[in-house]
Specification:
Layout (H helix, E strand, L loop, with lengths): L8 E4 L5 E4 L4 E3 L9 E5 L1 E5 L8 E5 L2 E5 L3 E6 L5 E7 L2 E5 L2 E7 L3 E6 L2 E6 L3 E8 H12 L2 E3 L8 E7 L4 H12 L1 E6 L4 E6 L1
Parallel strand pairs: 4-6, 15-18
Antiparallel strand pairs: 1-2, 2-5, 3-4, 5-8, 6-7, 7-10, 8-9, 9-12, 10-11, 12-13, 14-16, 17-18
């Protein structure tokens, strides 16, 4: 599967794993994927892996292998065989060709392989809104998920303090806002629009 476009391409794999394939990225998998969950990746992709303890999920990128049981992470292939893996949820095990060491990542850790060197560092996996107008969150939803959000005008400038996981599911974000403001959301998948109405 290739993404020659300038937008993120959403792919549903046969095992129900969801992949966000970035522009110019490419992934390959076999026809017996449900039993053999191996992916070759060129470029950058975010994976929300369907849990299946019987069949580990592996992403091969450059010299690295990311092994997963069920989790959310981004793999980025950089220049000169460098690879970065950011973990948002769950756990992954990293291996590098020719190196007997295994690295186990926790949420909020980034594994970087560059010029045969490995580093593991913390990164901020949250998006914080600290006492800002609600319209800032609506803009974030539009920019991050591609959905237009319609909210009653009286709410737009209300102040909000909120912390979201950067790869939070859109329906969870909508549910949080609906509960906070006691509103009913309607999601139109076809035109990518969310409308909040008073209860």
């Amino acid at each position: 599967v290739e993404n020659p476009t300038t937008k993120v391409k959403l792919i549903n794999l046969p095992d129900s794993t969801v992949v966000e394939l970035q522009p110019n990225a490419k992934l390959e998998y076999t026809s017996d994927f449900a039993d053999n969950r191996k992916i070759n990746l060129n470029g950058t992709a975010f994976f929300k892996v369907h849990k299946d303890k019987e069949h580990p999920f592996r992403v091969f990128c450059g010299e690295t292998t990311t092994t997963v049981l069920g989790t959310c992470f981004t793999v980025t292939e950089g220049e000169e065989d460098s690879v970065s893996v950011k973990l948002y949820e769950g756990s992954v095990q990293m291996t590098v060709i020719g190196n007997s060491h295994n690295w186990l990542l926790s949420p909020g850790e980034e594994f970087v392989y560059n010029e045969q060197e490995v580093t593991v560092e913390a990164f901020n996996r949250f998006k914080d809104f600290d006492n800002v107008p609600l319209k800032s969150v609506l803009k974030y939803i539009r920019d991050s998920y591609g959905y237009e959000v319609i909210m009653p005008k009286s709410y737009i400038n209300m102040q909000i303090t909120l912390r979201l996981n950067e790869k939070e599911n859109l329906t969870d974000v909508i549910h949080i806002l609906a509960e906070m403001y006691n509103l009913n959301p309607q999601i139109n998948e076809e035109i990518k629009k969310v409308t909040f109405k008073s209860r």
